[in-house]
Amino acid sequence: MNRAHEVYEGIYLIGGSDITHSADCSVYLVDCGKDTLVLIDSGAGPSYNLLVDNAGSLGFDLTNLKALILTHKHVDHIGGAAKFRKNYGCKVIAHELDAKGIEEGERFLTGAEAYGIILEPCPIDIKLNQPETRITFGKLEFNLIWTPGHTPGSISVVVDVKGKRVLFGQDIHGPLIPAWGADIEKYRESMKKLINQKADILCEGHFGVYQPADKVKKYIEGYLKQYSH
Ligand SMILES: [Zn+2]
Ligand SMILES: [Zn+2]
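^ thats the input. predicted complex w/ zinc ion below
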């Protein structure tokens, strides 16, 4: 197992399939300054305690957790959400088109059935419904960009940190399963939108961190090529 670690100034990888649980997505904790922490995705659920321990071992007090941004409704990203919200009072943010699955703990479209995980329903405090929504936490402005394709309500997160643009692109690699609500045309438009962000660092949903900017662009273009007609 790898350990939780800082991937760039104030951005920490605290969970993932080789860090906390085989079913987990990459879980990123952002130190926004001013005693404000933001979590991007929450793992599949069984790893909740380990994620809390990892944040603690890096010196963070999760009573400062102000927000949990859920990039989309798949269980590997949302399974721990209800516990974080209940125990730390953080605001849960997700796109309205993926809200139903998260709030109802739906089993099929979230992938909970396929993963064999009991999904705890989680209320969403802020439902996004715009192409882009900017929210400031601590000293950082988060741009939440609607990037449908992998799911109807997928979002990507862009934050400028100390002169570099960081993109939390999450499941750029897909898969695109129509039965789970994926849409290849929308995915392609969304990926072009992400390339236009010209990010310096990509924090991917499962496959690690990519930099500098030309590698980020190449990574996204590679999947655009894979998911073409
Ligand atoms: Zn995923
Ligand atoms: Zn996914």
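The chain has a mean pLDDT of 97.
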